[in-house]
Amino acid sequence: MKFAFVFYLACGPFLIVLGHRQHAICRLPPGVRGTCNIVRNMWSYHLDTNECEMFPYNGCLGNSNIFPTLELCEDVCKVHRKHKKINTDGKRAETS
User: Fold this and answer.
1) Which of 12, 25, 31, 83 would bridge 64 by S-S if both were Cys, CB 3.0 to 4.6 A apart?
2) Are 72 and 9 in contact (CB under 8 A)?
3) Where is the signal peptide (predicted)?
């Protein structure tokens, strides 16, 4: 919990400015474990699947594509794509 608070203090201003635009940290390699022996379950964004996945983070080093909660990972990185739907008249209608 202490880590989540420190993370929020350090990254909070970025999250407010970013809104729903995807940040560069979302393009970093996902699930980089780190080199220490303090294992915590964290979340990392996978650009290829547009999903956040849990992974065992060992602390120390790694990269910035790491989030303490699924919600924070999705808020910062997940792209909410519009799905295309074909109406009965053959025209496309956008849905979200």
Assistant:
1) 25
2) no
3) 1-19
What is the band of 22 on the pLDDT scale with cuts at 50, 70, 90? confident
DSSP for 2-61? Answer: HHHHHHHHHHHHHHHHHTTSPPGGGGSPS---BSSS--EEEEEEETTTTEEEEEEE-BSS
What the block records as the tokens of 69 is 């909660």
35-83 residue pLDDT tens: 999 899 999 999 999 999 999 999 888 999 999 999 999 999 998 765 4
Q: Which residues of 31-47 are buried (b: 16+ CB within 10 A; e: fewer)?
A: bbbbeeeeeeebbbbbe
CB-CB neighbours of 50 under 10 Å: 15
Domain count, the chain: 1
Structure tokens at 34: 């780190």
Going by the DSSP 8-state scheme, the letter that residue 82 receives in this structure is: P
Domain containing 39 — which CATH number? 4.10.410.10
